[in-house]
Inverse folding.
């Protein structure tokens, strides 16, 4: 099985003998923040059920923190989930993607039959999109 999404720390460690600095999967080289560890411990009493699929409490707190209405907030199960949801909602016909990029953009677009073109970023242009 070949993975296109990052985060395969176990496979990398097995192959190279150490962990990678992986920017593709929201992996922090600093480890788990203390506040996150505490939130996990506090959530254990409800770990026997699915989380709120509408993320009500999270949306309320984000709304208050960012001073935006709750209906302007969309939470999902990671970036890949949100990318697929957006593509499935919009069903684009053509798309231009910079490359290299997050593999899920092309995967999601191809699920709706979208024609995908790539713009290959070059080191001599500092990996910036040019005309």
């Amino acid at each position: 099985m070949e993975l296109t999404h990052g985060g395969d720390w176990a496979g990398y460690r097995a192959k190279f003998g150490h962990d990678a600095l992986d920017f593709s999967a929201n992996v922090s080289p600093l480890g788990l923040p203390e506040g996150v560890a505490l939130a996990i411990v506090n959530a254990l009493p409800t770990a026997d059920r699915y989380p709120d699929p509408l993320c009500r409490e999270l949306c309320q707190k984000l709304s208050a923190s960012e001073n935006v209405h709750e209906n302007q907030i969309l939470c999902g199960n990671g970036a890949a989930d949100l990318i697929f949801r957006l593509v499935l909602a919009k069903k684009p016909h053509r798309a231009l993607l910079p490359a290299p990029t997050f593999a899920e953009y092309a995967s999601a677009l191809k699920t709706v039959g979208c024609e995908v073109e790539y713009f290959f970023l070059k080191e001599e242009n500092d990996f910036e999109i040019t005309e």
